[in-house]
Structures are given as C-alpha cells and as structure tokens.
Amino acid sequence: MVRRKSYQISRLLHHDYLFVVKRAPALAKTGQAGSNRAMRDALLQEIDRSRDELAAFTADLIRFPTVNPPGDAYGPCCAFLGERLGRQGFAVEHIRAEGTPGDSDRYPRLNVVARREGGRPGPTVHFNSHIDVVEPGEDWTMDPFAGIVRDGRVYGRGACDMKGGLAASVIAVEAFLRVFPDFPGAIEISGTADEESGGFGGVAYLARQGYFSKPRVDHVIIPEPLNKDRICLGHRGVWWAEIETKGEIAHGSMPFLGDCAVRHMGAVLDAFERELFPALDARRTTMPVVPPGARRSTLNLNSIHGGQTDDFRPGLPSPNVPDWCRLTIDRRFLLEERLEDVKGEVAAILDRLKRERRKFDYEIRDVMEVQPTMTDRSAPVVQAVAEAIREVFDREPDYVISPGTYDQKHVARIGGLFDCIAYGPGILDLAHRPDEWVGIDDMVESAKVMAIGLDLLLHGHAA
C-alpha cells in the first residue's frame, strides 16, 4: 500500500471570496449557432465509428500505472498521449513542474499540453484531464492495470476517474477535426499531474505559467466523472489541517511522571463529537451538491498518529508515555460559510481545552485551503454543453456541484478564468473503488456532447 504524504501549503489559497463568473450572453439555440445539421450529423457519425477505438484507447491509458503518490509512470503516459496528439497536428509541450510537492528526479511532475491552431481567429477551448490515479487498494477481482474491455465496459484503476474522460475528449476532438479541418480559434488538450493530491504539480503549476488564462484560453472543460447528462459547475470548499497535541515523555510504568498527548487528543475528539459534528450536520447549502448527503458541512478525521513512532509494528511493546499525537482533518465547507469561521470554530474548541485541561497544548498547521467555486449557468461553456446534452439525450441537463474539489479551483484562483466546468463520462460513485469501470456507451455519448459543445463554442459565438 502506498502511503500518502502530507504537504504543508502555507496559506495556499488566501482570497476570501467565492469565485463566480460574470454574467455572459447565452448561446443561440440549435439552428442559430454552430454548424448546420448535415455537418452536425457527420460529426456524430464519426464518433459512432470510433467506438472500438475509444474503448481501446481508454484501456491503453489505464495500462500506465500512474499511481499518485508517488507519481509513477507520468513520463510514459504523457509521451503516449503527446505522440497521438502530435500525429493529429498538435504542437506538443512536455512540462515538468519543478519544485512542486513530490517532484523529484525519480518522480518528476510531468504534464503534456497540446495545441492546434485553427484556420482563422476565434476562441480557444481547452480540455483538461489529470493522468494520475489513486492506489488500487484491496478487493479487486482483476488486475487493476490490465485495461480489460468486457461486457460494454472498460475496467481498471482510473477507468472512471478519469482516463475514460480523457479518451472521450481526445476522440471528440479528433472527430471534430475530421469534419471541420478549417475551424476558427484553437483547441488545446492537456494531461496533467497530481490532481489526486491537490494538483500543485499539474494545473496549479501550469496556471502560474499562464496556460489557463486569457488571452491564451477562453473556455475549459474538465472531463471528470460526474455522469453523462450532468454539468458540474464547481465544488465545495476544503480546509485540510493537522492538529498536534503536546505531552511529556516518561516511562510507561509511571505515567504520572509524564503527560499523555494521546489523552489530550482524546479530549479533542470528544469535544468534536459532542459539539462540532452536530453543529456541522445542521448546516445546509443552496448549492446543488451531489450526492444529497454532501449538501451539509462535513468533517472527516483522515488519520491519527501518536506515540513512539509512526510506523510502530503491531505486537511490540511501547514503554513510553507519548509526548505527541497528530490528527489530520478534512473539513468540507459551503458557499454560505467563511473560511475564517471554519477555522475559528476548531480553534475555539482547542483554546477552551487549553484553559480547562492541565498542561494541554497544541499546534495547528494548515495543509490546504480551497474556496467554494461555482460557475454561473449563463457562462458560454455551460450554455454550449447544456445545448449539447439536450441534443444528445433529448432532456435538460442536471446542474450539480461536486462534493470534493478538482482542478477547477486552480483555473479560477490562479488563472482568473471562470468559464470552466467539469463534464465527462463515468459514475462518480465508482471512483477510487475496487473493480472501477467506465461504460463504453457512456464514453461515446459524452464524446458526442463534448464535440457538439466544441462546435458551438468555436462556431457559435465570438470570444
């Protein structure tokens, strides 16, 4: 099992405001924007003909075991994707995010960005997918990196989150280029690192280099697995932190001579159970977060360590009173909450315990802060993908908010680009699970939505 590392990102996201796009004119309805009907039909037929290729391409991507941490196989995966896009006439860059968390010569944080210019001026549409996947874990009934195609599904770690989405976006763009070789504007596709650990070596790094800002890019689609008929407008906020209680080491046979940090942490956990968890459970948001259980404030206790060593082997005695205990917390907060209040309610409990408990002392360290993000429904990329969903599925799309964060946070915060959504194939509940899979039909239909959305954004309105 690969063990996650915790990186302290001091005050990483410091702007105390909600990222919301400015109102933008809606796209014209079908028939008034984009290509004509015959061209649109040709585009969809190209994608139908690519069904087997789409499944095989997804399986090939899964076979790169891009597990993060530590960041395995980033180079070969980026090279594979870059070579394919290069053959389609894209200018391809391979970019290492040197100095970012986890970057090393053994595990370089590598990204691939490909751009193809159109035949005349126009906006730029960027499809961004992360290439990293979480560790497989236990209970698989098959090799998680075999890329097995069976019964209309592609199985493997990352099939759903999100190599199926990456493959669908590439197939959508390739079909678009065959039908519209002289398109206006530009198209970009990227495969980026480290989304599963915060995206600091991927989209965050590239955004600081100007890859996700105007005038280079106008619209961003991130093919995360939010279901094929839903548009994800953003995500809840998150505050990750480490709380450490202090103690005094002594011989375990005479604990009265020391001060047990684990007992102090027990008091923290008791206060959380009695006070904080009930308060969070009572809070609700107007954001359309899915699943419904995530429409409230939540706190997850990610890990707890204390005592002699972090890697103490079971069965061996520990003769000391522990002088430290560390708890990692994952607090997800809502549009209606302020980050300083989120932090303040935890600090208030710790400060009260310091007054009430003899020798109680603590430190709290920020690991990551992300503000809630929600793109306005009138944004051009939302309007284009919504129209595409209506055309492909003959129904209105659902507009949702993700319970967890993804790389849209960096596009907005660093790139200053708010015309960004997540849309892609796959069932969110399957992400990070054993026997993860993505449906081939879902990928085909999502590719059609992305291709139509691309058509509307490039042909349907001015940037």
Descriptive labels:
463 residues; alpha/beta; Aminopeptidase; Alpha-Beta Plaits; four-stranded antiparallel beta sheet; 16 strands; elongated
What is the topological layout?
Elements: H1 37-49, H2 51-62, H3 74-87, E1 91-96, E2 110-117, E3 120-130, E4 148-150, E5 153-155, H4 159-179, E6 184-192, H5 203-208, E7 219-222, E8 230-235, E9 237-246, H6 261-281, E10 298-306, E11 324-333, H7 339-356, E12 362-370, E13 373-374, H8 380-393, E14 398-402, H9 408-413, E15 420-422, E16 437-439, H10 440-459
Helix pairs in contact: 1-4, 1-10, 2-4, 4-10, 6-7, 8-10
Describe the structure.
With 463 residues, the chain is of the alpha/beta class. The chain has 2 domains: 37-235 and 372-459, Zn peptidases (Aminopeptidase, 3-Layer(aba) Sandwich); 237-370, Alpha-Beta Plaits. It is 31% helix and 22% strand. The protein has 10 helices and 16 strands. The strands form 4 sheets. A 6-stranded mixed β-sheet has the order 1-2-6-3-7-15. The protein has a 4-stranded antiparallel β-sheet with strand order 10-11-9-12, with helices on one face. Helix 6 crosses helix 7 (339-356). Mean pLDDT is 91; it is low at 1-32.
